[in-house]
Design a protein that fits this description.
The structure holds 2 protein chains of 2 kinds. By secondary structure, chain A is an all-alpha fold. Chain A has helices at residues 2-33, 40-57, 62-89, 96-116, 141-163, 165-175, 177-182, 187-209, 219-234, 239-259, 265-279; strands at residues 131-134, 137-140. By secondary structure, chain B is mainly alpha-helical. Chain B is globular, with a radius of gyration of 20 Å. The chains are: A mainly alpha, B mainly alpha.
């Protein structure tokens, strides 16, 4: 019994780290821009397919696949910022960019559906079938890789935000865009950078989750609705809260699968979301954002 | 003219001159009466009914999004609540269709008012995500409560609305697509007239005041919480009623018909038509229902049309078809605009 609990805890942390990786990009963009990129989900999916394609072309070189997903994500982030968010920023509407990216998401998803079909792809990396055992517990090397990559990405992002000049400039822009502009920081450049980093993270998370989840054109969407729940439970724009909430949702998911019913996962997660919104709308770690609460 | 606030200018621009309003409704009624006589093909008659339901969903959503300014991504859930609610009331409790219709519509309205509990505390993005979460929960309940909804297998063989037999007149049978179109489109027209009356009354002014600036609205004594609940209730009741018609029209209910993407489709109809006008979403809904039918031969590309039109409308024509119409009229009849 206790080994089942431990095993599910490990599975929960693996899934949770994937969610954190997806949600971090969303929260990063929200922190700087107070905007939601709904097409984030499809960058995840495209990242997964890019990784799949490159890994297969190079006969099993998964690391090259990850690099391709990162690059594709970064490029898409740049494109979405230049095509959607930058032109709409001048209009100053709060919700129009969200609606426009819902359109982008529908387009990308159905374009993938037309090209790739609805049948799941079997994405096996060289690490999917290597198993590490600790007594009754087991982990695939792929799972270890997921936890590692998530951990390293989160740490790098933290170091970047805390200690580098660009990171400090980014935080300055997220706190007060106009004053940051007066200090000689170019907010438009930094917003572009935020999109590139956030979307590269989305591409990366796609490459990581492709081999674990069911790889279809809808793979990103099934994850992103949970990522939305996670960023709200963690407090939008709050990186520590996002990490905590991501792991929490991962654990809830694996324990719901084990002890209740896999069909109930979304209901439990979103009930938690609505509960958070009703009781503590600023998220687990309070950081008040007046415009939403 | 320069003294007029943008809001007033906008409401002046909205729709057609008041005198001809009744005439327009009459024209709409005549079009509804004539359409199924012209369209004899049962495939296109089916599409006419889909149009009527989509128009009802779109104008309902526009009431809360366009007028009250609350981005609601949960319209698919209210649609589904109406459809499943009314069908299950008929199947499990043996209620007559029209009683189930009334209860189903009411149920969706109450659920909308409950969701507005979040709208009271949250604005903008948080509300959008909360309503999306609500839609996901309802979809998952429809999918997983198998003893009640039969889950992904769906409910089959739902009977059409009962035959209306008035003394001295021929029976009205709703398995006939023409009669079903008259029923749904007629009901949609009534919903339109009701919403039109509301948005042109002080209720409309109150809702737009909340949309434009909630704090100022509150300082004028407007109870924003109450009015948001009202807007949500009306909007979701309209969606619920559309759902009550959907079930006997299609005859089959599966949860996938009420997935969150359905919410996005309805939102696209509102945006492409022209958010914040009632006539816009009517044309948006018709365009986005009929246009993809011509593209059916290219399969999945149909939905790309929705995505592309949504994004392009937001980027280049945020006022939608209504704005395009006004631009065109200004170009063609510059002298009429001067008056």
């Amino acid at each position: 019994m206790s080994s089942i609990v431990l095993q599910q805890a490990i599975n929960g942390i693996v899934v949770g780290s994937l969610y954190v990786l997806v949600a971090l990009g969303l929260t990063l963009i929200y922190g700087v821009l107070v905007q939601i990129n709904f097409a984030h989900a499809d960058i995840v999916t495209l990242g997964a397919f890019a990784a799949y394609g490159v890994t297969h072309l190079l006969s099993g070189n998964y690391l090259a696949g990850i690099a391709a997903a990162l690059a594709l994500g970064a490029a898409l982030g740049w494109l979405i910022n230049a095509g959607i968010f930058a032109p709409l920023r001048e209009r100053g509407s709060e919700l129009l960019p969200l609606i426009a990216t819902i359109g982008v998401s529908i387009m990308l998803q159905n374009a993938m559906l037309a090209l790739l079909g609805p049948i799941p792809y079997a994405f096996d990396t060289p690490y999917s079938n290597q198993v590490i055992r600790f007594g009754p517990l087991f982990l695939t090397v792929q799972n270890v890789l997921i936890i590692l990559v998530s951990g390293v990405s989160i740490t790098l992002l933290y170091v970047f935000m805390k200690f580098t000049f660009l990171g400090k400039a980014l935080r300055a822009v997220s706190q007060d865009r106009e004053t940051a502009g007066l200090m000689g920081i170019n907010p438009n450049y930094l917003i572009m950078l935020t999109f590139v980093i956030a979307s590269a993270l989305a591409g990366l998370s796609g490459a990581m989750l492709g081999p674990v989840l069911v790889l279809t054109p809808f793979a990103g969407t099934s994850v992103i609705v949970k990522a939305f729940a996670i960023v709200i439970i963690g407090g939008f724009g709050n990186v520590e809260g996002t990490i905590l909430a991501g792991l929490l949702v991962g654990l809830i998911e694996s324990f719901t699968t084990q002890f209740l019913d896999p069909g109930l996962i979304d209901i439990v997660v979103f009930a938690l979301l609505l509960l958070t919104l009703a009781i503590r709308p600023t998220g687990l770690i309070a950081e008040r954002r007046e415009e939403n609460v | 003219m320069s003294e007029v606030s943008p809001l007033a200018a906008q409401s002046k621009e909205r729709g057609f001159p008041p005198i001809s309003r009744r005439a327009w409704f009459l024209i709409a009624a005549v079009i509804i009466a004539v359409l199924p006589l012209v369209v004899k093909d049962s495939y296109w008659r089916t599409n006419l009914i889909v149009c009527a339901l989509n128009v009802q969903l779109a104008i309902g959503l526009d009431f809360v999004v366009g007028y009250a300014g609350q981005l609601n991504l949960g319209q698919s859930a209210f649609y589904g609540l109406g459809a499943y609610g009314s069908t299950l009331l008929v199947l499990k409790l043996g209620l007559p269709f029209w009683t189930a219709f009334a209860i189903g519509t009411l149920m969706a309205g109450v659920a909308g008012a409950l969701l507005s509990f979040f709208a009271v505390r949250l604005r903008g993005h948080y509300l959008a995500i909360a309503s999306l979460g609500f839609a996901v929960i309802i979809y998952q309940i429809l999918l997983n409560w198998i003893s009640m909804t039969q889950g992904p297998l769906g409910i089959y063989g739902i009977a059409p609305p009962p035959v209306v037999a008035l003394p001295g007149l021929p029976q009205i049978v709703f398995s006939d697509l023409r009669n079903l179109f008259y029923l749904t489109a007629g009901f949609t027209l009534i919903v339109y007239i009701l919403l039109d009356q509301m948005v042109r009354s002080p209720i409309g002014e109150t809702l737009t005041a909340i949309r434009e600036d909630e704090v100022s609205a509150a300082s004028l004594g407007i109870d924003a919480a109450k009015w948001k609940a009202f807007a949500f209730a009306v909007s979701s009741a309209a969606a619920g009623a559309a759902g009550c018609f959907y079930a006997p029209f299609v005859g089959t209910l599966v949860p996938d018909a009420f997935f969150v993407t359905e919410s996005f489709m309805i939102l696209a109809m509102v945006i492409v038509g022209g958010m914040g006008t009632l006539v816009g979403p009517v044309f948006g809904a018709i365009l986005l229902t009929v246009l993809p039918e011509f593209l059916r031969s290219i399969g999945d590309l149909r939905l790309i049309v929705y995505g592309a039109s949504l994004t392009l409308a937001v980027l280049f024509m945020p006022g939608g078809i209504v704005e395009a119409f006004h631009l065109l009229r200004r170009r063609l009849f510059p002298e009429r605009e001067m008056q």
